[in-house]
Amino acid sequence: MVLDRIKSGTFLVIGRAGMDLYADPPGTKIEEAHAFFPALGGSAANIASAITRLGRKASLVNTVSDDVVGRYVIAQLKHYGVATDHIRSIKGEERTSLAVVETRAENCQAVLYRNNASDFALTPQDIKYLDYKNAAALIITGTSFAIEPSRSASFEAITLARETLCPVILDVDYRPYSWSSREEAAKLCGNAAQQADILIGNDEEFAVLAGDGDGLSYARALAEKSGSIIVYKRGEKGLIAFAHGETIEMGIYPVKALKPTGAGDAFMGGFVTGLAEGISIKQSLQRGAASAALVVTKVGCSPANPTHDELQAFMTTHQINQ
């Protein structure tokens, strides 16, 4: 039922969007930079743009500051074909996130400005009238649960989605700086994880969900209990997925990385659009891995997301490690 539903409609994506400033040219340290390259950033925005670049529809659900940075984010989302109908501009002290980042594979520095971040101002009213009934799926990034009122809005979105049989996809997206403690993140993201039809995270994120226990055992047990699709990412070691009683292990596409950022968001875009096209879970996971590999070879996150043709060409000419 979940996989059939994903094949049509718009992906509703809740979470962060912001402006990224990359020290330019690539390889430049921030403290030595004389120029910066701007790009759309934020995990949810990157996921939404990854989906649209691959030919599917996505709508970002977010609140941005009513200023030039907020307007930049909206303009960039439109540039990538992401629907912005459910983005609310807010006045006040909240500010759209800003990240200052380097394009370096080793010792990549990044500074994120998220004090009083505008996306945390999302309210239950903002998500009340989303078209869950006709949506392909609801995608939520875990950071959305860190602070009120975004926390309540995100849990309400899950409730409304489940009432209409809209698949819930959770990217754990654990960012320590957003949470008061790992224990709080484990409790709240764990609650959301129990309600997700598809759950995606890496080693550290599943360790958080497991209360700093064995993350892989937690993932396996949750898959057996809930019947959900669980994707456990292991960085350079590839991934392990638990799907409908099957265990899928695969490696990565080896590439020469330009920088480490954006891979997880691109993976989500490649994976869910594969499911939307009706290919198998394993093939969709391979698409996700290919998308992640492509993104780390280019500057930026959203600008680096591949098109459908670019992704197909890459998968035709490159071999995934087993």
Features:
9-stranded mixed beta sheet; globular; alpha/beta; 4-stranded mixed beta sheet; 36% helix; UDP-N-acetylmuramoyl-L-alanine:D-glutamate ligase; 11 helices; 322 residues
Q: Tell me the number of helical segments per DSSP (H or I, 4 or more residues long).
A: 11
CATH class wording: Alpha Beta
Overall average residue pLDDT: 97
How helix-rich are the residues, as a percent range?
25-40%
CATH H-level name... which superfamily?
Ribokinase
Write the layout of secondary structure elements.
Blueprint: H1 2-5, E1 10-14, E2 18-24, E3 35-41, H2 43-53, E4 57-65, H3 68-79, E5 87-90, E6 97-101, E7 110-113, H4 124-127, E8 137-141, H5 150-163, E9 168-171, H6 182-194, E10 198-202, H7 203-209, H8 215-226, E11 229-233, E12 239-243, E13 246-250, H9 263-276, H10 281-295, H11 308-317
Parallel strand pairs: 1-4, 1-8, 2-6, 4-5, 8-9, 9-10, 10-11
Antiparallel strand pairs: 2-3, 6-7, 11-12, 12-13
Helix pairs in contact: 2-9, 7-8, 9-10
Task: Describe this protein's structure.
The chain has one domain (about 1-315): Ribokinase (UDP-N-acetylmuramoyl-L-alanine:D-glutamate ligase, 3-Layer(aba) Sandwich). It is about 35% helix and about 20% strand. It is built from 11 helices and 13 strands. The protein has a 9-stranded mixed β-sheet with strand order 5-4-1-8-9-10-11-12-13, sandwiched between helices. It has a 4-stranded mixed β-sheet with strand order 3-2-6-7. Helix 2 packs across helix 9, helix 7 (about 205-210) packs across helix 8 and helix 9 packs antiparallel against helix 10. About 50% of the residues are buried.
